[in-house]
Amino acid sequence: MKIPLKYTIRNFRTRRLTTAITVIGIALVVFVFTAVLMLAAGVRKTLVATGSTENIIVARKAAQGEISSIILNDTYNIILSLPQVAKGSDQRPIASGDVVVIINLPKIGVDGGISNVTVRGVSPAAFTLRPQVKIVEGRMFNWGAREVVVGSSIAKRFEGVQIGGTVKFGGDAWTVVGRTEAGGTAFDSEIWGDVSQLQDAFSRRGAFSTITFRMTNPDWVDAIKKAFEEDNRLQQFEPKTEQAYFEEQSEFMAIFISVLGIFITVFFSVGAIIGAMITMYAAVANRTVEIGTLRALGFRRRSVLAAFMTESMLISLIGATIGLFIASWLQLLTVSTLNFGSFSELEFSFTLTFDIILSAFIFSTLMGITGGFLPAVRAARLNIVNALRSA
Amino acid sequence: MKSIQASFDIPVLNNISLSVSEGDFLGLMGPSGSGKTTLLNLIAGIDRPSNGKVVVGGTDIGALSETALAKWRATHIGFIFQFYNLIPVLTAYENVELPLLLTSLSKAERKKHVEFALQVVGLADRMYHYPKQLSGGQEQRVAIARAVATDPTLLVADEPTGDLDKQSAEEILTLLERLNKEFKKTIVMVTHDPRAAEKAHTVRHLDKGELK
Amino acid sequence: MRILKLMFKNTLRHKLRTSLTILGIAIAVMAFGFLRTVVTAWYAGVEASAANRLITRNAVSFIFPLPLAYRDKIARIPGVETVSYMNWFQGVYIDKNQFFARMAADAETALEVYPEFIVPPDQLEAFKRERNACIVGADLAKQYNFKIGDVIPIEGDIYPGRWEFVVRAIYQPRDGKVDGTQMWFHWTYLDERMKQEMPGRAGEVGWYIIRIHNPADAARISEQVDELFKNSRAETKTETEAAFQQGFIAGTNLIIVLLNFMSFVIIGIIMLVLGNTMIMSARERTKEYAVLKTIGFSGGHLTKLIAGESLIISIFGGGLGLALTYPIVGMFSLFVPKSWFPIFYIEPSTIVLAGTAALLVGFIAALFPIQRAVRTSIVDGLRFIG
Question: What interface predicted TM-score (ipTM) does this complex get?
Fold first, then answer.
């Protein structure tokens, strides 16, 4: 026969403080666990959302990122002549040769320091390729002018890049004429200008960093990859869907955060498990007579084991719920950091996914089981006569 | 000289006046709930009257601060409990030594006191036993040794034989009697055992908060 | 003293509980020590910086080069001893996951400005003689089993093409604070190939390293350097090596915040575990404390007794945790490639911090049970049934 749950819950009330402390411990661990995974998920989500599956981005094979990739003009022309490159109504390829560089800008704030910001020179088709990028304030830069538009999160965090301001780089002052919004993608953390102006300013005439084009059909990824492998002029370059390319940029950061976080939370959880164990052992010790009575009434060892396991798991589930609840508020927080993938500032938010919630509950249940098992076994093993006598 | 003068009016004890002379062995009797223990606690300075006065050996203990009161208890009172209340992790010797730690005695002097006290209660051969290894009567004798170790003027005992078999109870009572006669200790003992009360010089009855 | 003995005896009353608590604290202290060590590793570049080195780079950002012509102009500034220069080469060795610093350096001066990279004189000579020779750190040599005479093939990205370098020297880092995972080759070799393949990029220097005579002149010399090239096409930004390294870390502030936050959480967890144990113990001993008070022990005595017990547990737990930190950090270094965290060692300050945290927790965890024990009246305490 099962020992009613009510018994377990009533017991929490009598040992309020100790139970509360244990719950808080588990909540803390679950909070850290969840927060770390949310951070990693946030980086990934932002970068996955940045790239489209309909676009192909081409970079030099050996390049670690857009900034260290170089594609010269003749290669650019070969790529644009591929049959898989979609054409616009004007019969010109929907493609943008981008120049990507990093500049230092001072952060807003007393001791903000400086950080790296991506400046992307684009061709006119870029706005067709990436329709999520919209001018929300001011105007578009003029082609052929030393003007730039600035992503919202850059405008928010850095000095001198608000509309009307000027940024100095490439031996010139560039006027900020507009602010863009790109729906929480990495493009929100970039400054855009005319590619030919940037090539000129950085003495990179005839050289791009990457080339992005729209496919006539999104199923042609493999055909494009094959075309690159077969053409020995293109063998040094690698085409990828834009989404895959940006997702890869999140890899290092996401893995780094997750591995470090999980390594640490495992240690933390050992602490919490030990806390739960102490509490459960004390609960068993304090209720020795009760356990003897229950057994004398006819409850089986198994029921006693189950009752104490339930108690321990309940503690950890309550802890998990509290930890998750607090962590879910982090979603309102936007943070920015240097992304190792692009070596420049990236803004993103903590993202709570179903998988994270599930992992947190599994994790906390495991903590409850580990912490409760030994004490529950001790309770179940108590000899009825001795237990009753121990008053 | 009067050892104790107590008069107060608090919820359990109605307007009670009690005086005990030095060297007296007072038995306080009464049914449970009559306020005996409360009265005893007031005398021993572990409880305070909400109004009224307790003067022991000339000191108005109600007027003392917490710390001063603790110090006062350490030097003037030896408390004997019904359930002995020895510290389980300490040996008989260490239990008796406890109150002496609060004095300025050296280690060697403490040793002399402890050994003497244990000798008086007849447990010199059980010095290094833990409470678990002693019988109830022996535990109570250790507790008495602890109470007299600092040579206090007043011994306060709360049902000292309440948890003991007849023979052990007899031994404890004889011991208390001897402490009173031989060592001139003033003793106030709460009991509801008529045999225990017989050993006292004076017996007072407490009923429904009234002293008779 | 007997009170101390009583404290010890009290800790042994529930051997299982006390051992679990000590273990819990030990693990938490170890996690704390590990976290601080990661933070230390993060700041290793700043720590290793020399006060007499300045770094001059392009003011726009480190990815833009400076002309080689700046070298002689900088060298003429009073107080400057040696001017050296480097380029970030990067490239891919085996695959993109094999990360270590690969740089083109001026063979003549590089080791003069970095005396903490110790190279045997004969190897240094051999390195200087051969145009495509390279020098690798001892830790890197160990990781990839590089030996003198080995050829390291690298696929260039910033400098496209296939490159091959011959190991001619292996440097020993002077101490644990020096990165032993770098690879340097001749800057002139890079420049020669650029002249042939991409003439527009010949004569480009990534950054200058300036050794100055007196660290006190750092600010003045930095200003003078930047003044020299003001309003040119490549303006410079000169700062001390420490500030330069700090700039690299500044962007990853979030990680530091995260690590610091976690160190606080772990202290919180220790506090909860120890606090829980102390509250339970004190609760079970409510009656004993009342007896002690009856005997004449004051609130102060009880405070000492409880705090002492808590401290004993935290000292044992903390000590065990600190002892465990070393093997754990050692294990981490075994599993994680040396080039990820070139500098990974336990700083004395980490030990002091972790020890202090454990002690502090010992005190704080005792506060609540002390308050309870002192406040509970003797009469209530004697009546208490656990």
Answer: 0.85
